[in-house]
Every structure is written in C-alpha cells, then in structure tokens.
Amino acid sequence: MIKLYHVELSGNSYKVRLMLSLLGIKHEQVLVDLRGGEHKSPQFLKLNPFGQIPVLVDGDVVVRDSHAILVYLARRYGDEDWLPTEAQSMSKVMGWLFTAANEIRQGPEFARRYHLFQIPLDVQLATQRAYAILKILDEHLTGRQWLELNRPTVADVACFPYIALAPDGKVSLDAYPNIIAWIKQIKQLPGYVGMPGL
C-alpha cells in the first residue's frame, strides 16, 4: 500500500492527493504534525532529510518533493497523457512544473503563507509576483482549456492548487477569466478531490 505523508492545508501535499485520486490509486494518508515538529524527528528525517512534506512511500521507493512525486506517479501509474516522453511535449509540461516551483511559489503560495499561517515574509513582493504570474497564466490560457497538449497533464496538477488558493493570500482572481474557466475544468475531472479553501 502506498503511503503519503502530508498536511491537510498544504497545497503541495494536496497536489499529490489530487494526482493519486485522478489516477484512482489506493493509498494510506499519514498526517504529519508540523506544529509538534514531527517533520524534524529522526524517524521522519530518514524519509526526507530536508524535513519537508509531502513524502510518498511506495514499497521500497521513497520520493520527496511534490513535483518529483507527480512525475513518479505519472510515469509509474499513469500513461503518456499525464507525462509524455516525447522531448518537445515533455519539455512543455516540465516547464510548468518549474513555474509552479518558482513563480507560483514565490507569488500566490508565499502570499497565502503570510495571510493564512502568519509566516513572516515580504508579502508586498509576494503579492506583486502573484499578480505577475496570474497575468502570464491568464494570457497563456487564452483559447486553451489546459496548460499544454490540449489535455490535462501533471502541469495542470502542479500549478492548480496555489493558483486556485490565491484568494487565501488576499490575491483576487476576478480579473482573470481564463484562469477561472481553467479552475472549473479541473474541478470537473473524474476523480477530482478538493481541500479546505477549494
């Protein structure tokens, strides 16, 4: 049985829960007590020496980092639709995973951290970055239902949570109709599951 070590309110944990559900993979969810410091315990650090969630354990395979887990699940349990192996198609999909780990993280995710969890950071800069990536994303989605390849891929799963949760960080989506339509599309996928805030 696959085990997912996660936190309920973490968008990065949610990406993995969503992917597992979209692929119809049975798994056990193990909540990690961040406030209690469980992620820094010797036992957890054996799974992930960085002390971060989520972590996926599949038999003898341990995968850390939400995007690495998405890639693992897509290749191990999915098919070419979720993560193609053809070079150009793969590069398009992977480009959005890096966007999720950089621009989306430093924008909507950081703004949400500040407002929802009172994590001290430069919220003005995070908000500016959030609106910058929202503008780019909305323009990219003009005339598209999905980020790439005319179908849902791990790119959509990677970018979706912190974009859809932007209002938690006091970042409005009202001016971005293409993003709003894309969010609705994702919520209609067979196997979609939500999280608090969605």
Automatic annotation (TrEMBL):
One of its GO terms (molecular function) is transferase activity. Residues 86-198 form the GST C-terminal domain. Coiled coil: none annotated. Pfam families: GST_C, GST_N. InterPro entries: Glutathione-S-Trfase_C-like, Glutathione-S-Trfase_C_sf, Glutathione_S-Trfase, Glutathione_S-Trfase_N, GST_C, Thioredoxin-like_sf. Residues 1-81 form the GST N-terminal domain. The keyword Transferase applies. SUPFAM superfamilies: GST C-terminal domain-like, Thioredoxin-like. Keywords: Transferase. Belongs to the GST superfamily. This is Glutathione S-transferase.
